[in-house]
From TrEMBL:
The keyword ATP-binding applies. This is Bifunctional riboflavin kinase/FMN adenylyltransferase. InterPro entries: FAD_synthase (IPR015864), Riboflavin_kinase (IPR023468), Riboflavin_kinase_bac/euk (IPR015865), Riboflavin_kinase_dom_sf (IPR023465), Rossmann-like_a/b/a_fold (IPR014729). It holds the Pfam family Flavokinase. Keywords: ATP-binding, FAD, Flavoprotein, FMN, Kinase, Nucleotide-binding, Nucleotidyltransferase, Transferase. Residues 174-199 are annotated as: Disordered. One of its GO terms (biological process) is FMN biosynthetic process. Transmembrane segments: none annotated. Residues 245-376 form the Riboflavin kinase domain. GO terms for molecular function: ATP binding; FMN adenylyltransferase activity; riboflavin kinase activity. Gene3D superfamilies: HUPs (3.40.50.620), Riboflavin kinase-like (2.40.30.30).
Length: 376
């Protein structure tokens, strides 16, 4: 898979590469954050149609997320975020999204730096560039996709443009999943107060109770298969529901660093991740999951906690991620400076203060047994 990274100029113009002088392209456009089942359906359709037409399978990926750029600009007098700004709300790094695309058979990925000048271009101009520069003959989109200035290029508008010009076709994929759900727009991460995976609070409600809950929380309708919903679920500790939408365990990646080593003193040494973690951190708590180093993986009890200090990179409270790997012989793993992956399988319990080391050790032992069961 070929990867090209492109930065628009000050006027928002992009120097699109010429993929071929005679071979056409099937293209999809988006952020693909999280690369959930809806994204997978869209990209799989791109590859399917490209193979049928002997065309290139192409994905145009925006980075950083448009939501980050526009929110930052609104709060900073129209300025754009710095290139090295950490997007704490991104579910996955761009590199992980590209790995999934390569697995599905995409030929070319064009990673475009999303800027305000680029966003101001009309969808007609953008799609004209796709046709003229990339040789796009089919555009594949999800049902509620939108692009261009003020998101004016929705599926209906693009379908009308395709019919009027006759230079490309629009193929719309059902990427909604099982309908819609309701998500509070300003929901804050909320750690569950009970042990075990949290249930859907709406599941046992009547229609009237759901309406009342939605009104109270000003919840908006979103697709079940959406990055917004996955982010919300993880912020509430509902890992299993999030994983069902992703089609795989949610994961973060980072480098193992030296911690305070208190776990080692009570027989539970952990691998501590440094500050440069990629991927969305679920809400504070203890989780069951996996610690992965290359082709080696161990069931792990994972702790996420918040420090009372702020990170200069994100403007949020600093978070600490520790993974206790369950090994066959019970030995500690020396993974310092290793780049590792942490996958989340289920929520075990909230962060609580124990009366003493004996009570803590007893609880950690229970967490280990539950982790073994969930990762079996």
């Amino acid at each position: 898979m070929d990867i090209t990274r492109l930065t628009p100029d000050e006027q928002g113009m992009v120097e699109w590469p010429t993929l071929s002088n005679d071979r056409k392209a099937v293209v999809s456009v988006g952020v693909f954050d999280g690369f959930h089942l809806g994204h997978r359906a869209v990209i799989s359709r791109v590859v399917e149609l490209a193979h049928k037409a002997d065309a290139f399978a192409v994905a145009v990926v925006f980075d950083p997320r448009p939501g980050l750029v526009h929110r930052y600009a609104a709060a900073h007098n129209g300025e754009e975020p710095a290139a090295d700004m950490v997007d704490s709300q991104a579910l996955t790094s761009v590199d992980e999204r590209l790995r999934h695309m390569e697995e599905l058979g995409i030929d070319h990925v064009l990673v475009v730096r999303y800027t305000l000048a680029f966003a101001a271009k009309s969808y007609r101009f953008f799609l004209g560039q796709m046709v003229g520069k990339l040789g796009m003959r089919t555009l594949v989109l999800g049902q509620d996709a939108a692009m261009g200035n003020n998101r004016e290029g929705d599926v209906k508008a693009i379908a009308n443009l395709a019919a009027a010009t006759g230079v490309f076709e629009l193929d719309v994929v059902d990427d909604r999943g099982p309908g819609e759900t309701r998500v509070p727009p300003d929901a804050q991460p909320t750690m569950p107060t009970t042990w075990g995976e949290p249930a859907d609070p709406l599941a046992a409600m009547t229609k009237a109770e759901r309406r009342a809950w939605s009104k109270k929380h000003q919840a908006k309708a979103v697709r079940v298969w959406s990055s917004t919903n996955v982010r919300y679920l993880l912020s509430q500790g509902r890992v299993k529901d999030a994983n069902a939408i992703l089609g795989r365990p949610h994961a973060i990646e980072g480098t193992v660093v030296h911690g305070e080593e208190r776990g080692r003193t009570i027989g539970f040494p952990t691998a501590n991740l440094g500050d440069d973690v990629t991927g969305y951190l679920p809400v504070d708590g203890v989780y069951a999951g996996w610690l992965i180093d290359g082709d080696k993986r161990w069931p792990s009890a994972i702790s996420i906690g918040t420090k009372p200090t702020f990170s200069e990179k994100t403007g949020l409270h600093e978070r600490v991620v520790e993974a206790y790997a369950i090994t066959d012989n019970g030995e500690w793993l020396d993974l310092y400076e290793h780049h590792v992956r942490v996958e989340f399988v289920g929520f075990l319990r909230p962060q609580v203060k124990f009366d003493g080391p004996d009570e803590l050790v007893a609880e950690l032992k229970r967490n280990v047994e539950e982790t073994k069961r969930l990762t079996a």
